[in-house]
Structure formats: C-alpha cells, structure tokens
Give the backbone structure.
Amino acid sequence: MQWFKYALALLSLVGLWFIGLGLSTFIPLPASLLGLLVLLLGLVWLKRIPHALLTVSQFVLGHMLVLFVPATMGILLYGETLADNLLWLVLSIVISTLISLGITAWVCQRLWHAKSVNSPAFNDNE
C-alpha cells in the first residue's frame, strides 16, 4: 500500500503541472511555475509536507540531470547558429546578470535600511 502513496504523490505533482498549464492560458507565466505556486499554496494551507510527497520530490530532484538532456541536445543541434550569434548571447547574458544583480542589491539595501530605521536599537527617540 506504500507504493500507492508514492504513485499518488507523483500523480499530484504531474496534476499540478497540468493545473499550471491550464492557468497559463490566463496568466502569462510558465506552466511549471504556476504549478509550483499552486503546490506552495496547497502546502501553506496544509501546514506540513506529506511524507510521500517529500520522498517523491527528493527522488525527482536527485534525478534532475535527465531533464536537462533536451537542452543539451538543442545545443548540439543548433551549435552553428549559436556560434554565429555568440557575441550577442554573451552580451545579453552579461547585461541581464548585471541588471538583476543591481536590482537585487538595490532591493536588499532598501530592506536593510528600512529594517535599521524600524529597529529599536537604532532609535534615538528614547
């Protein structure tokens, strides 16, 4: 009967992906991300992680390398096209990384400043 719990947990993960796929027609986000958000909401509502779901999730994450095979095959099949556009690819990766690091640093700095202003240790009113 234990295998049934694991099968049900795996089916629930796949089902959540399908729910995300359905939601992606209304919300412009990837189906996998929407499915993960639905899973997160469900786990927050449940206030615990079922053991079977935890076990299946760890197994899937442990074998995630298999999921990158299509991306690797795409690189092999379109290697010439990628080589022709290598400069633009590298530039876009570097620029987007710098932008995301800058925005992350700015948000962290604002949060840190807001925390230090609201902290009683930094209040001079007393």
